[in-house]
Design goal:
heterotrimer, A mainly alpha, B mainly alpha, C mainly alpha
């Protein structure tokens, strides 16, 4: 087998593994969210289907599969069908550059636990998330319904407003690591949790948390999906599998944003104390990364159970007039620190 | 043919097809989405030609920001399908296409003749972000870079002023 | 890859440019005309990158960067003008704006 064929095979295996991992994580997240929200609201949540209700996602999937697929009258058929596809595509594409652990050696080859180790890794994620706006705008517009159009426009305006703050929060991290590669950014945080970027770039981290929550349309920024507001926002007219695809896009976006946060602000696969990295002889990198990602996902569910929704004009005001200046100031200070203290 | 070459021709074919859709499609919204596909395939070609930074910037700026503006304007203005020209004849349209084809053929001939000895192929080409940034912020281009930031502010103010409702 | 890719990239750039130019001549909707202009700008970007790869100069990449920036600014202002025009005449037909006054 030639070198290119080997590379191709490795890439295909990685794609299959990560794709399936994301699907399983997505269905598990739907269950986890419902259970934890229930506990926070002093009730039980789904606990009937299977032991502890763990088969609930499967039951949901079967139900959605057998529901009737509706197409609203006057809807633009092609765009209506394409919108969930675009949303899901961009959600999964952005996971292509996220590393799940440090490099491992398999049969003498060093293999990174990410599908594509781009030199412009972080910028690639920014690019794909700016394409994610189209899925929502298409979904809202193609249904021939003024409420979904308003929901879609609001949601996409929210998304690209906070995308700016999101990108700016990364610039400080990029400056500290002086590279766009995510592997380099993680490596620059080596040496214990006091060197992780959530400490050295605390303001950037706060901006990232807020911007990421707004970017994936989660509470407290989920006004476009609020049932009391615009019926359901851009996914009102969708039923059955197309709705499931839109939900999948949202959850996978949430998982992506958690994974990126774990990588660039919490040291990725590095242990909090260097001694804990490989205590039993083999590298625990993947485990640490999964722990951090799980903590981030729990944080998102926690936010949903705790905070109230933000009004749309408050949201836009905050995004443009507070978050962007704060992020820019952070960049300025980081640049000054890097220039004069290194 | 190497994988890179195959990908190049695939991207090229997609780019040309969606460009034709941009021009030929009656509904402007479909044209906009076809243009996004064109830009994305061009970004792929940029990546294949060894310029990862410009490829990603193309997607971020063009496909992800400028076209979002276009799509928003199209949806807010609720554009209808274009009517056919009354009194205009198909002859007019076909003449335009024909002249365009003639231009294409002429320039292609000149191009292929001029590069008959084969264009140069730079060895050790490194257009990574670091190298491009070094050129961008060198003394030659740094003032132009700062000037574009002033340009963007001017465009921002201009766009806001033009699109504002002059409320009485 | 190899040198012939540069030739083919230049031919592709030319094709896209001509398609955009024909679109500017033929289309009656202002926004579509504007999109064809953006298509032409993209074609020029492609030829810049092809030459950059061929000659090994990074100046062309910087030029593409500036073209991208200027195109963004121009798109913003152009669309604002289109919105203002639409507000006046409630149509996006190119032939409707044939006078220098309303």
């Amino acid at each position: 087998m030639s070198a290119t064929q080997q590379e191709l095979l490795i890439a295909v295996v990685k794609v299959l593994v990560i794709f399936n991992a994301l699907l399983i994580l997505f269905s598990f997240m739907t269950y986890v969210e419902r259970r934890m929200l229930a506990f926070m609201q002093f009730r039980l949540g789904p606990n009937r289907t299977g032991p502890l209700g763990l088969l609930q996602p499967i039951a949901d999937g079967i139900k959605l599969f057998f529901k009737e697929e509706l197409m609203p009258e006057g809807a633009n058929k092609w765009l209506f069908m394409a919108a969930p596809a675009v949303a899901v595509m961009t959600a999964f594409l952005s996971m292509a550059v996220v590393p799940w652990g440090g490099p491992v050696t398999v049969k003498g080859r060093e293999v990174t636990l990410q599908i594509a180790d781009l030199d412009v890794g972080i910028l690639y994620i920014f690019a794909i998330s700016s394409l994610g706006v189209y899925g929502i705008v298409l979904a809202g517009w193609s249904a021939n319904n003024k409420y979904t159009l308003m929901g879609g426009l609001r949601s996409s305006a929210q998304m690209f407003s906070y995308e700016l703050a999101l990108g700016l929060s990364w610039v400080g991290v990029i400056m500290l690591a002086s590279s766009f590669r995510i592997g380099d950014i993680v490596a620059a945080q080596a040496g214990g949790f006091w060197r992780w970027n959530f400490v050295t770039q605390f303001v950037g981290f706060l901006v990232y948390v807020v911007a990421a929550t707004a970017e994936v349309n989660r509470t407290p920024f989920d006004l476009p999906e609020a049932e009391t507001e615009l019926v359901g926002g851009f996914h009102t007219e969708y039923s059955s599998m197309r709705f499931a695809l839109l939900q999948m896009a949202e959850y996978v976006n949430m998982i992506t944003v958690s994974a990126i946060g774990a990588n660039i602000f919490f040291g990725g696969w590095l242990a909090p104390i260097p001694a804990l990295q490989a205590p039993f002889g083999f590298d625990l990198g993947l485990l640490w990364f999964l722990l951090k990602m799980a903590a981030a996902l729990f944080f998102f569910v926690w936010l949903r159970g705790t905070l109230t929704r933000v009004r749309y004009d408050q949201l836009m005001h905050f995004g443009w007039k507070v978050l962007v200046p704060v992020a820019t100031l952070n960049i300025l200070l980081t640049a000054a620190a890097v220039t004069f203290l290194r | 043919m190497s994988l890179d070459a195959i990908l190049f021709y695939v991207f090229a074919a997609v780019a040309v097809l969606s460009a034709v859709v941009v021009v030929a499609q009656r509904n402007p919204t479909y044209s906009a989405f076809a243009l996004i596909v064109t830009m994305a395939s061009l970004a792929g070609i940029f990546g294949l030609l060894g310029s990862p930074l410009i490829a990603v910037l193309q997607v971020i700026v063009y496909a992800g920001a400028i076209m979002v503006l276009f799509v928003f304007v199209l949806m807010l203005l609720n554009v209808q399908e274009e009517r056919r020209i009354e009194g205009g004849s198909p002859a007019f349209r076909w003449t335009a296409v024909g002249l365009g084809g003639l231009l294409a053929v002429q320039v292609t001939v000149v191009l292929l003749r001029a590069t008959r000895d084969g264009p140069a192929w730079a060895a050790g080409f490194d257009a990574s972000a670091r190298k491009v940034a070094q050129v961008l912020f060198s003394a030659q281009y740094v003032y132009v870079f700062e000037a574009t930031s002033i340009l963007i502010v001017a465009a921002l103010v201009g766009a806001l002023t033009l699109a504002r409702r002059t409320g009485k | 890859m190899g040198p012939e890719v540069v030739r083919h990239a230049l031919v592709l750039s030319l094709l896209l440019f001509v398609i955009g130019a024909v679109g500017v001549f033929l289309r009656r909707n202002i926004i579509t005309v504007f999109m064809c202009v953006e298509l032409m700008l993209n074609a020029v970007n492609l030829s810049f990158i092809a030459f950059s790869r061929s000659l090994g100069t990074l100046d062309a990449q910087v030029l593409v960067f500036f073209v991208l920036t200027v195109a963004a600014a121009e798109a913003a202002v152009g669309l604002a003008i289109i919105i203002a025009l639409h507000r006046q005449k409630d149509t996006l037909d190119v032939d409707a704006f044939s006078l220098l006054r309303w």
